[in-house]
């Protein structure tokens, strides 16, 4: 029989209220033992909780009895909304822990049970994980869509369409076994069905990256030594993240500084000034790292001569415009010292960043989801391009496997362990 688990699901004590959740077959008996009655399902009621071992009062709490399977975990659940003091929580937890069949939950164990009981698929779990980690409003919006199952439902409709197509393909195969003339109409319908499904899957592949949304849009500041990169980075993030000096070659390693601007998470990287030759071997390593950072950049702020820009889409910055004349410069004149041009620069940054991030009502996909959708698309394309019915049926089988991997029906145990252990206890 499954263990019944319990954990403090609200924040660190002391707090106004502490929510202790219990999930599993013993949730009902545990609640009965503490509150001496089982309240009507899904109705909040105020109860004196007593320690069943000696009858001593523990706390007066709002309790909820949530019989499964229509609960978040899919199991019977109880919720105790106690006073949020440390001793209250410790007392209630000790009483629960002393009951047969009850134990403390591991990190993410409630969610894992929800997943295993089919209440959430893997995509919704990932969305929930992002939602709990969300720090900007944009991260929250995209994570909520994923957690609410918008993407999961879309995949589910793909799965049904694929099952229909597979059934038709197997039927057409049976026909050809019997040496009958295969029904040309069926094959045409299969072909059209595969094509439209492949198109829908392809549309998802261009969704923005959830990693970028979570970790921040990577903005790399680059240019020759002493161009003013460190000063500009400090001005953008609003603190002294990088050392500023008039000695050329001051920044010798990459300095990363996260900042949220306009509700968008950015990760700014200051790099060593790029110059062709340096006698300083550490600076040379820094320059190599700067070049690597440029390759991984989503947005480049180039503070050097416009003609030397490392990428054609870089934002060209005429830096230190309070003392340098940038007449004829095609980019933005900016002075990190006086603040001139900073507003324009921030507006340009936000404009570029928005093109890389999900808009209102759009998903962001994790690498795992994108790879899964790409595998699905590959098998659908292969099925759509063959004239051999046997090959087609096999590709559709592989496509079904890709969908199962995408939803977590065919997830590997270690991948699941890793995912769930990233959650906090009580979730
Ligand atoms: N007047 C003025 N001086 C600036 C401005 N930005 C930077 N400086 C000065 O220029 C010098 C170099 O600035 P840094 O920000 O260290 O330049 P860097 O590009 O990071 O230099 P490296 O680390 O050597 O690559 C410092 O003395 C700064 O005070 C600016 O907007 N106006």
TrEMBL record:
Cofactors that this protein relies on: K(+)
GO biological process: tRNA methylation; tRNA wobble uridine modification
Pfam families per the UniProt record, alphabetical: MMR_HSR1 (PF01926), MnmE_helical (PF12631), TrmE_N (PF10396)
A GO MF label: GTPase activity
Keyword Ubl conjugation found: no
Residues bound to Mg(2+): 230, 251
Highest taxon above the source species: Bacteria
Location in or out of the cell: Cytoplasm
Cofactor-binding details, from the entry: Binds 1 potassium ion per subunit.
Residues annotated as domain TrmE-type G: 216-354
Major subcellular location class: cytoplasm
Chain sites annotated for binding GTP: 226-231, 245-251, 270-273, 335-337
Binding site for K(+): 226, 245, 247, 250
UniProt keyword annotations, A-Z: Cytoplasm, GTP-binding, Hydrolase, Magnesium, Metal-binding, Nucleotide-binding, Potassium, tRNA processing
Protein EC: 3.6.-.-
Cellular component annotations (GO), alphabetically ordered: cytoplasm
Assembly and interaction partners: Homodimer. Heterotetramer of two MnmE and two MnmG subunits.
Family: Belongs to the TRAFAC class TrmE-Era-EngA-EngB-Septin-like GTPase superfamily. TrmE GTPase family.
Cited function: Exhibits a very high intrinsic GTPase hydrolysis rate. Involved in the addition of a carboxymethylaminomethyl (cmnm) group at the wobble position (U34) of certain tRNAs, forming tRNA-cmnm(5)s(2)U34.
The name this protein goes by in its record: tRNA modification GTPase MnmE
């Amino acid at each position: 029989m499954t263990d019944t688990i319990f954990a403090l699901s609200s924040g660190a004590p002391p707090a106004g209220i502490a929510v202790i959740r219990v999930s599993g077959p013993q949730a009902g008996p545990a609640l009965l033992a503490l509150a001496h009655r089982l309240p009507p399902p899904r109705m909040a009621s105020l109860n004196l909780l007593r320690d069943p071992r000696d009858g001593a009062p523990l706390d007066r709490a709002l309790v909820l009895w949530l019989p499964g399977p229509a609960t978040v975990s899919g199991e019977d659940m109880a919720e105790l909304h106690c006073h949020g003091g440390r001793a209250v929580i410790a007392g209630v937890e000790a009483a629960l822990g002393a009951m047969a069949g009850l134990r403390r939950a591991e990190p993410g164990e409630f969610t894992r049970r929800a997943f295993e009981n089919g209440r959430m698929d893997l995509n919704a779990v990932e969305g929930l994980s992002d939602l709990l980690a969300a720090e900007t409003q944009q991260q929250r919006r995209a994570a909520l869509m994923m957690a609410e199952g918008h993407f999961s439902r879309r995949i589910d409709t793909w799965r049904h369409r694929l099952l229909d197509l597979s059934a038709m393909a197997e039927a057409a195969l049976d026909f050809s076994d019997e040496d009958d003339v295969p029904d040309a109409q069926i094959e045409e319908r299969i072909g059209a069905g595969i094509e439209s499904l492949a198109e829908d899957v392809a549309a998802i592949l261009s969704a923005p990256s959830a990693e970028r949304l979570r970790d921040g849009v990577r903005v790399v500041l680059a240019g020759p030594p002493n161009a003013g990169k460190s000063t500009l980075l400090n001005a953008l993030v609003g603190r002294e993240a990088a050392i500023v000096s008039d000695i050329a070659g001051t920044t010798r390693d990459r300095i990363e500084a996260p900042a949220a601007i306009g509700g968008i998470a950015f990760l700014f990287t200051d790099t060593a000034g790029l110059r062709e030759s340096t006698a300083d071997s550490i600076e040379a390593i820094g320059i190599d790292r700067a070049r690597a950072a440029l390759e991984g950049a989503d947005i480049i702020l180039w503070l050097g001569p416009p003609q030397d820009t490392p990428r054609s889409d870089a934002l060209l910055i005429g830096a230190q415009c309070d003392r340098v004349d940038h007449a004829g410069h095609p980019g933005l004149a900016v002075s990190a010292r006086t603040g001139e041009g900073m507003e324009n620069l921030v507006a340009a940054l936000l404009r570029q960043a928005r093109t890389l991030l999900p808009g209102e009502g759009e998903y962001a996909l994790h690498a795992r989801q994108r790879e899964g959708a790409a595998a699905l698309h590959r098998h659908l394309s292969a099925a759509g391009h063959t004239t051999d019915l046997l090959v087609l049926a096999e590709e559709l089988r592989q496509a079904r496997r890709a969908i199962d991997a995408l939803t977590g029906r065919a997830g590997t145990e270690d991948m699941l362990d890793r995912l769930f252990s990233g959650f906090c206890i009580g979730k």
